[in-house]
């Protein structure tokens, strides 16, 4: 009955569209026409064909929507592990009886059907294309698959964008772009590396950092110095170099023998008596000796600045800089240490933003041996070249010296901000022992590059390992890097 009504309705609508009107007198004739078998079959066939046509259109339209709908997946980075999940709202894989990802392998990727992820390590950069060949469940198995073009942006490895231009060997005060050092310091050893930063490599400019080490046999003390030349001052690289070498020179050749001997005598008395009252006297004498060394360094840089201005005045043309020594601005940290029967006496000095830290033998405690000159908004760094550090009321010179006694120590770290900034981020983190343990684990290979440094005097590749470690990538941190480890 329902089919008869449907057929009659269809014919009535068809006649109306065609402008055929059924007179009231011919209603009975029309009913007979509707019920004729040939006419019924014809209408049923038409309805079925129309339904099939609509289904085909809906399928075609759906497939077109699948092809046209953007499949937005996160950008990748060339050479870095990548994984992007395809979510149902992005692409309904369940309705597909066939899906083949074509072109992913050429990129270095593949489709993980179990987790519905595109993953792998892209081997090329650019806006890359790959194709999804698919068939839906509503289609016959013999139907040719459809193609959906998908775009993936693979960013280049930022490391590859940096140039490594050599510094000008003919430039004033040229020095090596990279230096490394390993040797004995008394009964300890030191491994160190000073590397030109990527920002300097990219511009072909000079390495501003410097370092120097010496065990001075005549007094039995070991000296280690690290300096960071202020890159915005044109001859700071020389200032850093003089700062380090002058520290060694002072304790080896210019030492005030009388004052230093009094200092040694007090330590020897303490060695015999363990009189704690002597420690205050030793502390005062240590500051006196260190102060003379610091003043000597400042004057040596000042002397070089004056000589350079006379011999090469063209180098001093910055209207904002009036004092020649300012062209040589550099920070400075240095330590002296010597082993006695009761342990190690460790002296230190620091001006600028380079930390010194010592870790005990049990590796349960790390002590920062200097405070850092850092400003809330930058510009807080002070330099060995600034005369006002010697008479500052806010930061008295005496506060820059340190005197400590340790039974022994496992590591003594000295570094410039090229290491400190990426590895510790803020000054407060230097005060936390757990951060130094993390740093030590990083050195041992717990890092993104899986680059270890075996801190052993028997390790013949220790300098090469440290140099490789120093190449670590840290976004936004491309300054010179200098690190010295005494162990």
Automatic annotation (TrEMBL):
One matching Pfam family, short form? Answer: PP2C_2
Q: List, for all copies, the residue spans of the domain called PPM-type phosphatase.
A: 196-458
Supply the Gene3D superfamilies for this chain. Answer: PPM-type phosphatase domain
Q: What name does this protein carry?
A: PPM-type phosphatase domain-containing protein
Source organism per entry reads: Sphingobacterium spiritivorum ATCC 33861
């Amino acid at each position: 009955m329902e089919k008869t009504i449907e057929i009659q309705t269809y014919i009535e609508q068809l006649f109306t569209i065609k402008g055929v009107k059924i007179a009231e007198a011919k209603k009975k004739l029309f009913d007979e026409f509707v019920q004729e078998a040939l006419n019924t079959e014809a209408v049923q066939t038409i309805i079925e064909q129309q339904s099939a046509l609509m289904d085909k259109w809906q399928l075609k339209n759906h497939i077109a929507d699948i092809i046209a709908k953007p499949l937005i997946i996160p950008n990748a980075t060339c050479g870095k592990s990548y994984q992007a999940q395809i979510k149902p709202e992005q692409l309904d894989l369940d309705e597909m009886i066939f899906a083949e990802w074509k072109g992913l392998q050429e990129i270095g990727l593949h489709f993980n059907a179990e987790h519905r992820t595109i993953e792998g390590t892209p081997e090329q950069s650019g806006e890359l294309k790959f194709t999804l060949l698919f068939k839906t469940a509503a289609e016959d198995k013999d139907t040719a698959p459809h193609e959906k073009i998908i775009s993936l942006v693979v960013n280049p490895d930022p490391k590859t964008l940096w140039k490594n231009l050599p510094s000008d060997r003919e430039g004033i005060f040229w020095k090596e772009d990279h230096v490394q050092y390993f040797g004995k310091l008394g009964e300890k050893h030191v491994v160190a590396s000073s590397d030109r930063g990527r920002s300097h490599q990219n511009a072909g400019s000079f390495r501003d950092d410097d370092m120097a080490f010496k065990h001075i046999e005549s007094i039995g003390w070991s000296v280690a110095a690290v300096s960071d030349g202020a890159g915005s001052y044109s001859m700071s690289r020389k200032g850093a170099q003089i700062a380090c070498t002058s520290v060694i020179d002072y304790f080896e050749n210019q030492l005030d023998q009388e004052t230093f001997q009094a200092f040694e005598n007090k330590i020897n008395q303490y060695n015999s008596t363990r009189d704690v009252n002597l420690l205050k006297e030793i502390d005062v004498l240590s500051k006196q000796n260190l102060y003379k060394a610091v003043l000597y360094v400042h004057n040596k840089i000042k002397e070089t600045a004056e000589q350079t201005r006379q011999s090469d005045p063209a180098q001093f043309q910055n209207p904002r800089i009036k004092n020649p020594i300012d062209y040589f601005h550099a920070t400075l940290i240095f330590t002296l240490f010597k082993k006695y029967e009761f342990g190690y006496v460790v002296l230190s000095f620091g001006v600028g933003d380079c930390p010194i830290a010592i870790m005990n033998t049990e590796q349960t405690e790390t002590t920062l041996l200097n405070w850092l000159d850092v400003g809330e908004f930058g510009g807080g760094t002070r330099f060995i070249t600034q005369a006002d550090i010697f008479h500052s009321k806010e930061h008295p010179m005496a506060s820059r010296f340190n005197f400590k006694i340790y039974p022994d120590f496992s590591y003594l770290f000295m570094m410039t901000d090229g290491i400190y900034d990426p590895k510790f981020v803020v000054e407060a983190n230097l005060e936390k022992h757990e951060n130094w343990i993390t740093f030590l684990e990083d050195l041992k290979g717990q890092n993104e590059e899986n680059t270890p440094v075996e801190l052993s005097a028997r390790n013949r590749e220790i300098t090469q390992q440290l140099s490789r470690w120093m190449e670590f990538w840290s976004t936004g941190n491309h300054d010179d890097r200098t690190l010295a480890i005494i162990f």
